[in-house]
């Protein structure tokens, strides 16, 4: 598994949002993306799962490759088997009337045995086993976010992108989600996490990309990035209190 972004530029309208972005992610990495609000993180994430340029229009140039799949040449639904996406707000994602239905959607075209296995495993990883018959809208925000993660896991993509999955959660729920992500990565998934909690990133990520005004201004090991206090201050990123 390998993700390659090369000379990526994007604008929704006239204003350029992504500016000449290039990087590569190897299979099994846990990469964090940080940057202040509005710098283009979500836009970049939409380029990684093919929403841009396939569903969201604008001026796109450069290339995004997921293994040998060029995102420009494949439908978003086709990409979803390779790239899982967890949105910032679980309510943008959940559409089913039960937790089980929601999680079954990804693997719906597999055989019944395989579907059941995938659902069971996904529920186990996020710890929602007892809630599979519940209505998602009766669950807490944290539980709903776990449903989203479970539905992505049930599709079994190699690469999982999460866009600030804990921004609406309290400390305990955030910690819980973070532990799930750590587990997912340990089991071999490549994780790309947009996250403002630099303490969490300092603990778990091997590598950090720093974004500022549409550019990747630093791409290095977590240790190197988070010890560059000048850069963190300049780009408005919270200096982590725990350093690994
Ligand atoms: N659909 C859209 N149409 C036009 N501009 C957009 C759209 N979505 C985001 N933008 C603009 O693109 C810039 C980057 O936004 P975004 O990628 O959401 O940043 P971040 O996730 O880092 O907060 C912002 O200036 C935002 O207003
Ligand atoms: Mg965003």
Commentary on this structure:
This protein is of the alpha/beta class and about 240 residues long. The protein is about 35% helix and about 25% strand. The protein has helices spanning about 40-50, 50-55, 75-80, 100-105, 110-125, 140-155, 170-185, 200-205, 220-225, 230-235; strands at about 1-10, 20-25, 30-35, 60-65, 70, 85, 160-165, 190-195, 205-210, 215-220. A 6-stranded mixed beta sheet has the order 6-7-8-3-9-10, with helices on both faces. It has a 4-stranded antiparallel beta sheet with strand order 2-1-4-5, with helices on one face. Helix 5 crosses helix 6 (about 140-155). The chain starts with a strand and ends in a 10-residue tail after the last helix. The model has no long low-confidence stretch (mean pLDDT about 95). The structure holds adenosine-5'-diphosphate and magnesium ion.
Would you summarize the structure shown here?
With 244 residues, the protein is α/β, with parallel strands linked by helices.
* Structural classification: alpha/beta
* N→C terminal distance: 27 Å
- Assess the beta-strand content as a share of residues: 25-35%
- Kindly state the number of beta strands: 10
